[in-house]
Structures are given as structure tokens and as C-alpha cells.
Amino acid sequence: MARTALVFFNNIEAGKLIEQDAGYVFEYNDDYFQNAALPAISLSLPKTIKVYESRFLFPFFFGLLAEGENKEIQCRMLKIDENDHFTRLIKTAHSNTIGAITVREAK
Domain residues for 21? Predict the structure, then answer.
């Protein structure tokens, strides 16, 4: 079963991150991709390609996750499996991230 999260750059929807059985897909939205004034969400996901695929959570998104004690506290408080990186991402990176990128669960 696929799960989807919306990725925002300064509250502008940039694309979607999809978790599938075979891994992850990040896809820029058409409008965001075609707007040369809007930057890539990261250096590792440049706007030269519209759709990216990976067997593992992209390092850029993994870098938004807490580590160590903070990870343990978040997982305990939010009742999240420490190895469920996608759930951790949508439950913790929806606001107050370092930088301009936020990730929200798609409804």
C-alpha cells in the first residue's frame, strides 16, 4: 500500500514523496518544476529530473529526521516505530524544520 506526503518549499507545494513496497518516489509538481524562479528542494534532487526513485528514503529527507535521544523521545511520545522513517517524517517535519522544506501527510 502506497503512502503519500506533500513536500513544501516555504509553504509552496513543490512535489510529493511516495512510499511504495519497492521503495520511494519523489516527484516535482508540474507548476513548481516549470517555474525557473523556484529552486530545487535540495542539491541532491535538482530540477533537471522531474521524478526520482530510490529503494531507500532519499538522504535529503532522512536528514530532516531527529537522531539519538531526540529520535527516541519523538518515537515514544508519538508511538512511532523507530524504523518507520516515512511516518517519522510526516509526524515531525511538518513545521519548524531547519530550512525551507516541510513535509505534510497527504489527506
Answer: 3-105
